[in-house]
Every structure is written in C-alpha cells, then in structure tokens.
Amino acid sequence: MAGRESMQVGVRAQDGFPFSAECFGLHEMLQLSPRQSHHRLLLLFKVVSDTEAMETLLEDAFVLFGIFTIFIFFLKVAKCLRYFVLTKWFGVPNSFFSSLGEWAVITGGTDGIGKAYAFEFAKRGLNIVLISRTKEKLIKVADEIEQATGRKVKAVQVNFTKRDIYEHIEENLKGLEIGVLVNNVGMLQTPNPCRFLEMTDIDETIDDMIAVNMVSVAKMTQLVLPKMKQRSSPQSEKAKANSANKQLHL
After folding, report:
1. H or E segment and range at residue 129
2. What is the pTM of this model?
3. CATH of the domain at 146
4. Distance between CA atoms of 98 and 227, rounded to whole angstroms?
5. What is the pLDDT of residue 30?
6. Which residues in the chain come in under a pLDDT of 50?
7. Domain boundary pick from 76, 91, 106
8. What region, left, alpha or beta, does residue 129 occupy, with left being phi > 0 and alpha being psi -120 to 50 degrees?
9. Residue 183 has what pLDDT?
C-alpha cells in the first residue's frame, strides 16, 4: 500500500501536478519509511520554492509595469509643460497661423473681444473676414485693420437674428482658404442684466437669443469646417507638396 502511494506520488511529480502541504500529512509521514519521507520532503520543498519563484516573478513584472506607466505619464506631463513654457515665453510662431489657411473668419468682429481677435490674427499674417450687422462699424474696423497691419479685410453685413442669412455668408466665403473660425457673435436679453420674466417681448427675445448664441455657432461651423477637413487630408497635403516642388523647379 505504501509502495503504491509512493508510486502515485512519483507519477504526479513527473506529470507536473501541484502539491500542497495537505498532501503530506504528519500521520502519513510517520507511516512511511525514511527514504519515502525524504522523497516527499524533497517534493514539498521543490513545490514551495517554485511557488516563491513564481511570486517573485509576478512581483517583478508588476514593478516593471508600474515603472513603465509612470515613465509614460511623466513624458506626457513634460510634453505639456514644454508646450506651455515655450508658448508663454516665446509665443506661438506666426508661421503656425499661416499654415492653417490664409483667412480668419470672425463673427461679431466689430466690437470688444471679436475686434481684438481680428487685430491679433491680422498681426500674425492672416487676412480677415468680419461678419456683423452694422455697416458703418464694419467699414471703420476694416480700415483700421488694413492700415495697422497691411492685411486684406473683407466685410460681410448680416443680422444673425435672421435664419436666412447663411446662403449670403456662404457666397461671400467662396474661394477663401479659411484656417480659423471665431464664433464670437452673441447677445444678452437686455443691455442691462434683468430677471428672466422681466424681459420685454419675451418670445421674440428668446428666439433672437437662440438664433444668435446657438444657431450661428452650428451654421457657421457647418459652412467652414468641411473645407478645413478637406485641406487637412493626406491627399491635400500631397498636392500641396507637389505644387511646392513644381514652383521650385520653375
């Protein structure tokens, strides 16, 4: 009986079956001969050492994975810091804006933030399309930008409270290589802040606010974005490179 059990243990060891401490009970150990007991102890030590080696290997693998993850994280942080530090100290180069396209389209560009955007993009080498509702302001700001920067300015007069203006805008944007769109136009319910229910002509005011503050953003993006995407395609980049090479040869 003991010989058969010893044979089974040997077969299990050769087949690679795992052993646990429960396989080697003290009562059974005492019933075995010294040689069999020694054989079982060797098997037990081998299983324990193999388990410890596997645990060590797994620990090392997790440590290496953690180091690799932290390294990738710090690379991304360093990249972000490099971008912010360089742009803060040296600013974005003008070539970046001109590489996007020749024109910048700015809605509500005759006052405040929109006007400031127009001047800054013109200083960085872009031509400007101003879209606003007041013709006198458009002419005045366009002249100021042209005289200050020497860039071209195109003025488009529309009222963004209307819904039928976008075909007119599209006609005026045809053939322009637009690199930047600034959806700046907006309106408040009244010149001075007031409670919602205190608005005059509340139904008309709500419709106007939706048309100016929300519809204009979606519609202007719909007009401009497809051409931007088309120019950024690999085929377009290849065509630009071929054109540049031809000009060099000429």
Report:
1. strand 127-132
2. 0.60
3. 3.40.50.720
4. 16
5. 46
6. 1-27, 29-30, 239-241, 243-250
7. 91
8. beta
9. 96
